[in-house]
Amino acid sequence: MLKLEAVVIDNGGFDLKADFDVPTGAKVAVIGPSGAGKSTLIGGIAGFLPVRAGRIVWHGQDIGHADPGKRPVAMLFQDGNLFPHLTVAQNVGLGLHPDLRLNQAERDRVASAIARVGLAGMETRKPAALSGGQQSRAALARVLVQGRPLLLLDEPFAALGPALKVEMLGLVEDLVRETGATLLMVSHDPGDARRIADQVVLVTEGVACPPRDTAALLDDPPPALRDYLG
Ligand SMILES: Nc1ncnc2c1ncn2[C@@H]1O[C@H](COP(=O)(O)OP(=O)(O)OP(=O)(O)O)[C@@H](O)[C@H]1O
After folding, report:
1. Could you tell me the CA-to-CA distances from 180 to 30, 148, 151, 175, 206 in Å, in that order?
2. Model confidence over 163-208: pLDDT tens digits?
3. For the chain, is the Cβ count within 10 Å smaller at the N or the C terminus?
4. Rounded distance, CA 176 to CA 173, Å?
C-alpha cells in the first residue's frame, strides 16, 4: 500500500497536496488540467521534488525523504528516457548499475528484459537507430529490469501515434500484471485511463484527490473534471 499522509510536495514554490492511499497492485491514472500538479505529484513520490510536510509511506516505511534511487520506484518520462550514445543493452543495464559493470546474471536479466519487450536482436543498436515505439520499448525494458514495485509514468507515450500508444499501453498492462507492480500514470487522454486504469486520481489546482473508480468518475465527472474534459 502506498500512503500519502497529508503530503505537501514543493515544486519551486508551487505546492501539491495529497492525502490518500493507493492499494498495492492498483492501476491508477493521474489526470487533470495543465499546470494542476500531476508531474509534481509523480516527482514527489519518485524523490525528485522535496516533501515539505506529511509522509509518503510504502508498506509501512516512510520513503518521503529517501534518495530517488533508494525508493521502490521506477519512472518513465515523456522524453529523455534513453541516452543517445549508449546501446539498447547499455541503456537497459543502467537500470541495474549506473556504472554498467554487470555480472553474468545481471547481463542475463538485461537480455531477458529486452526480449520481453520485443527487442531481441537489437541489443547493440543506439536509440537513433530505433523507431519511436522501439525506443519506448527499450525504456520500458529498463523499468522492467529494475524490478521495482512502484511504476510511475509521466505521459511516456504522448509523442507516439494513437495505434502505437495503444500498443505500448497494452505492453505496460501486461508487464504490470506479470510483475504485480502498482502503477501511477499521468495522462491527458481519458481514453488512456479507461484503457488501463481501474482508478483515477484527479489533480486540480494543487490538490490530488483520492482515487475514484475510473468508469464511475469519467461517466459522471465532477465540475472540475467536466471543465477539463470539455
Ligand atoms: N521549477 C519550477 N519552479 C516553479 N514552479 C514550477 C516549476 N515547475 C513547475 N512549476 C509550476 O508548478 C505547477 C504544477 O506543474 P506540473 O508540471 O506539476 O503540472 P502538470 O499538471 O503536470 O501540468 P502539465 O499537464 O502541463 O504537464 C505549474 O503551475 C507550474 O508552473
Report:
1. 19, 10, 10, 8, 30
2. 888 989 999 999 999 999 999 999 988 889 999 999 999 999 999 9
3. C
4. 5
CATH number at residue 25: 3.40.50.300
Q: 215 Cβ partners below 8 Å, 6+ apart? A: 194
Task: Look up residue 2 and give its three cell numbers.
Answer: 502506498
Q: How far is the CA of 63 from the centre of ligand 1 (A)?
A: 23
Cell for 148?
521495482
In a domain, 214, yes or no: yes
Question: What is the CB neighbour count within 10 angstroms for residue 62?
Answer: 14
What residues contact 50, with CB distance under 8 A and at least 6 apart? 9, 10, 44
User: Which residue lies with its CA nearest to atom 11 of ligand 1?
Assistant: 14
pTM for the full predicted model: 0.93
Report in angstroms the alpha-carbon separations of 203 from 14, 17, 76.
14, 9, 19
Residue 140 lies in a domain: no
Question: Which tens digits make up the pLDDT trace of 138-147?
Answer: 999 999 999 9
Pocket test of ligand 1: the residue of 38, 152, 155, 205 to mutate, having most ligand atoms within 8 Å of its CB, is 38
Q: Sign of torsion, CA 121 125 131 136?
A: positive
pLDDT tens digits, one per residue of 73-86: 999 988 768 999 99
| 144 neighbors 175 (Cβ within 8 angstroms) | yes
Ligand 1 pocket test target in 9, 14, 48 with most atoms within 8 Å of CB: 14
Take residue 149 and report the three cell numbers written for it. Answer: 514495485
